[in-house]
């Protein structure tokens, strides 16, 4: 039995590795083309290289954290408002990348290797998460779409996304398997890698309610209730921990919130204060104005999209096959984004945690459907790399 399981695990690891490595070779080709196209107006200049593209944009912030740590005094403008600084970025990824860099010859190497390896591990876990719900073939196609998707360049950049997705996929797998013990560690790892653990807290709350109403068909032992409540409380504590840490380290209780608002104020004005569930409607009006369309249409379209997403999660046969845990995660994460995020061009990157929900596109078994989705993924990847890296010259080309 043990030998059979070992062979099965090796087969899964090898199959996913073949998918992932081929996808990374394609992305490397796109990076090389983007470096050749990069000109004097690009953020990366006319002498851009694959390595400079890989360590661009937010990768620099993680590098600063690994090299210098976090500022004890918040940088401010002449008007006294907090400006962009390292407190907006969580520490686990740069710390691990720095440790790995001591072996590989420097932080950039550590950062890229960590992102690459975490992306592969996330692909394996995604396959395991989906296989029992949609079958091996569809699960493998979901991995193909994930490894070749529009945001796949992040697997080869000094970003924390792939590590954050690894913890998330493991946490969802543990929840599906009801291995609650693992979640105590994974919640902490998620909470100090990428923002979003509060969405997982909401998921646990909804999951507990779902299990309660289903307890006659699916028994809900007391120890499950204890774990769900304890894990939900832990996720809330971890979700606010970084704000407390930043406040203590800088002497300013609002350090983290003011740092996050610094990125937003260039859009909505220097007097902007945080109010949940408002930013998406503000941004919808702003973007429609920039496109020369009536600004009132922006919030209307946003409401239509929200309703459409709700109907998709509740009614789509393909999404329903993914199981209640993944569907509840999709709802929880969308509520979290609506509550806290101001959508800019980085919104596409912020949607990556919805990958398990998006796996529903792999369910239809038509070969041409799946090939068509793959073509769209690869095309989207090139467009993202071209816009954000080859050009990278204006406000809507920031990843």
Tell me what you see in this structure.
This protein has 399 residues and is mostly helical. The protein has one domain (12-391). 70% of the residues lie in helices and 0% in strands. It is built from 18 helices and no strands. Helix 1 (2-37) runs parallel beside helix 6 (136-147) and helix 9 packs across helix 15 (324-340). The longest helix has 36 residues, at 2-37. The radius of gyration is 21 Å and the shape is globular.
> In DSSP terms, counting alpha (H) and pi (I) runs of 4 or more, how many helices?
18
Q: Determine the structural class based on helices, strands and strand pairing.
A: mainly alpha
User: How large a portion of the residues is in β-strands, by DSSP E?
Assistant: under 5%
Number of domains: 1
Question: How many beta-strand runs?
Answer: 0
The shape is: globular
Give helix % range.
Answer: 55-70%
Q: What ranges have pLDDT less than 50 throughout 5 or more consecutive residues?
A: none
Give the end-to-end Cα distance, rounded to a whole number of Å.
47 Å
N to C succession of SSEs: HHHHHHHHHHHHHHHHHH
Give the overall pLDDT as a whole number.
Answer: 94
Radius of gyration: 21 Å
Q: What's the main sheet like? A: none
Report a brief summary of the structure.
With 399 residues, the protein is an all-alpha fold. The chain is built from 18 helices and no strands.
Key features?
single chain; 70% helix
Annotate the secondary structure layout.
Layout (H helix, E strand, L loop, with lengths): L1 H36 L12 H5 L4 H10 L23 H13 L2 H28 L1 H12 L13 H17 L2 H12 L5 H17 L8 H29 L4 H14 L10 H12 L6 H19 L1 H4 L3 H17 L6 H4 L4 H4 L8 H25 L8
Helix pairs in contact: 1-5, 1-6, 1-18, 3-4, 4-5, 5-6, 5-7, 6-18, 7-8, 8-10, 9-10, 9-15, 12-13, 13-15
């Amino acid at each position: 039995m043990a030998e059979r399981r070992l062979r099965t695990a090796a087969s899964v690891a090898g199959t996913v590795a073949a998918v992932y490595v081929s996808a990374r070779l394609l992305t490397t080709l796109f990076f090389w083309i983007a470096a050749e196209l990069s000109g004097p107006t690009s953020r990366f200049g006319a002498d851009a290289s694959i390595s400079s593209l890989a360590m661009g944009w937010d990768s620099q912030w993680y590098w600063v954290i690994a090299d210098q740590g976090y500022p004890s005094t918040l940088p401010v403008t002449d008007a006294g408002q907090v400006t962009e600084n390292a407190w907006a970025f969580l520490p686990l990824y740069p710390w691990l990348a720095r440790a790995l860099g001591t072996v590989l010859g420097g932080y950039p190497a550590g950062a890229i290797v960590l992102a690459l390896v975490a992306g592969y591990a996330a692909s394996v876990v995604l396959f395991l998460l989906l296989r029992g719900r949609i079958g091996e073939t569809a699960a493998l196609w979901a991995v193909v779409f994930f490894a070749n998707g529009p945001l796949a360049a992040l697997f080869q950049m000094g970003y924390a996304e792939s590590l954050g997705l690894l913890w998330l996929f493991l946490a969802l797998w543990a929840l599906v398997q009801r291995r609650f013990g693992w979640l105590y560690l994974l919640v902490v790892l998620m909470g100090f890698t990428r923002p979003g653990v509060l969405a997982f807290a909401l998921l646990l709350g909804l999951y507990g309610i779902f299990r309660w109403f289903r307890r006659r068909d699916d028994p809900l032992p007391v120890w499950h209730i204890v774990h769900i409540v304890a894990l939900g409380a832990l996720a809330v504590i971890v979700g606010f921990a970084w704000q407390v840490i930043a406040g203590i380290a800088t002497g300013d209780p609002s350090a983290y919130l003011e740092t996050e608002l610094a990125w937003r104020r260039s859009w909505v004005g220097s007097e902007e204060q945080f109010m949940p569930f408002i930013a998406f409607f503000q941004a919808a009006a702003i973007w429609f104005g920039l496109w020369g369309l009536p600004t009132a249409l922006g919030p209307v379209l946003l409401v239509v999209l929200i309703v459409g997403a709700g109907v998709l999660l509740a009614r789509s046969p393909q999404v329903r096959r993914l199981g209640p845990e993944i569907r509840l995660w999709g709802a929880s994460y969308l509520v979290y984004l609506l509550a806290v995020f101001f959508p800019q061009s980085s919104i596409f990157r912020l949607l990556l945690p919805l990958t398990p929900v998006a796996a529903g596109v792999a369910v239809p078994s038509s070969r041409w459907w799946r090939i068509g989705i793959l073509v769209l993924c690869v095309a989207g990847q090139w467009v993202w790399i071209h816009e954000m890296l080859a050009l990278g010259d204006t406000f809507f080309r920031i990843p």
